Amino acid sequence: MTRFLSGISLFLTSLLAYAIDAPAATPLPPTNPTAIIIFGIIFVGGIGGYAWFMWKSEKKRMQRENEQK
User: How do the domains of the chain map onto residue ranges?
Assistant: First the structure.
């Protein structure tokens, strides 16, 4: 294990020798946040829908268990 870790650390440090300086990036043009907003709404809605589904399923399961007793 020690040999593996030392090999990884030597490999990662050798990568620094091959790193080159990146040219200065050109500034990005202003973007439209519509896609990010839509994604956020769908993402939060999906999480909320999943939580609601799990809550209703748990409620039905508890109700069935109480009826069987």
Answer: 36-69
